[in-house]
Amino acid sequence: MGSMNAHIKQPKEFYLVDAHIGDSYFVEVNKNDDNQVEDIEECCEMCGDNDFVMGIVKSKQDVKKLAMEYDYNPDYVDTMIKSYERLVAS
Q1: What is the mean pLDDT of residues 17-26?
Q2: In angstroms, how far is CA 23 from the centroid of its own chain?
Q3: How far is the C-alpha of 25 from the C-alpha of 4, rounded, in Å?
Q4: How far apart, in whole angstroms, are the C-alpha atoms of residue 11 and residue 17?
């Protein structure tokens, strides 16, 4: 009889990344790249600091939950959610 959910598209997964310079950002998870997190968190040659992968998000609720766990300012959390919504809408 087949799966009833076969036509439902799975939500894309994104890493929420805390940037060492500037704003946080999202990177689509590439399941074929075993080194993706290491590449994102690679040490900056200019300053020696690095970006930090906070976690994986699949929804704006995930963004809010993860950002609040890291004590982000609520106004900035709203900005992050808007950025996420623009990203998944494109």
Answers
A1: 90
A2: 12
A3: 35
A4: 18
